[in-house]
Amino acid sequence: MKGGLRYHPSLDMDEALALASLMTWKTAVVNLPYGGAKGGIAVDPKKISERELERLTRCFVRHIHELIGPQTDIPAPDVGTNAQVMAWIMDEYSRIHGFSPGVATGKPVDLFGSKGREEATGRGVVFALEEFLKDTGGGELRGKRCAIQGFGNVGSWAARFLHEAGARVVAVSDSRGGVRNPEGLDVPQVLDHQRQKKTVTGLPGADAVSNEELLVLDVDVLIPSALGGVLTKANAREVRARVIAEGANVPTTPEADEILAERGIPILPDIYANAGGVTVSYFEWTQNIQQFTWEEEKITAELRRYMREAYATLSRVARERRVPLRTAAFIVAIGRVGRATVLRGL
Ligand code: NAD
How confident is the model at residue 3 (pLDDT cuts 50, 70, 90)? Predict the structure, then answer.
């Protein structure tokens, strides 16, 4: 099983179970040999020291070490966790069970991590958009106006790759608020600013925008990549994006999903659009097991292949069944898990 480990004050059992179930369908959509998992701690990592974060993580591993493992349940970074947290997990688990680099993915490249893992989810979101544009005759990313909610791992890497592709990133935000520039933000400048100030807000030369306003800006592409449940029945009618790529997990409530479908706004669903992270986690795990490393070009090329093949299947099913891409993704995923279950005789 595979899934992210989340450190966030609002995390509870229901949310973790829902996210774990989504991981089952996500790994099936991109055809990875895993079931779904999720976990975490209800804590605000920004409010504790680095030492406390390490002690908390190691203590957590001592309590759950019988449940996780390279052949059972393999955590990866999610909201509030990062490569350092994965390194502590690997170290603590290895103290108990012996050397086990494959117990967690998203580790630092200097400690059995994979090249290209940190940026994988953001890169996958951009590959998904490219496939969608090609398929629907939407042209290139160049010049497209994009708004990104959340400037953490997923959002900031998506911003970098969009900027490199010549798209105009017109707004970005984090938990403190957002910034916008209709001409396009200078993404390297935003990254510098964020590194220094720990927030994108207050960026010189840009206007302030709230998280609520960002979601309804007149843009070509909207990428919610912070928390879940941000597109709701209260704002779905105001959304002006031409396409939504779900970088975050469950950013769209079921009511909003229906309204957006009625309005003809296509959605690249989370279980496809943000599957780049788990795909490169899979590459990391296979490298750990084989004790062999891949170059970044190979990782990127393979990630592109997985995202392209998954898109081709979803788009075919969506056309054949006349359903939105999200429904197509569930048809594909449930079909694959169902066939495997029947073949095992379960
Ligand atoms: P992160 O902790 O690196 O970044 C989260 C970002 O969201 C930060 O910029 C934070 O300030 C912002 N944020 C938090 N609360 C907010 C709020 N109330 N309003 C606006 N912004 C807010 O997390 P991440 O790893 O980038 O994950 C973001 C989303 O992507 C989550 O839904 C996660 O489950 C999903 N996801 C992550 C990965 C991955 O590889 N990291 C893979 C698949 C899906």
Answer: very high
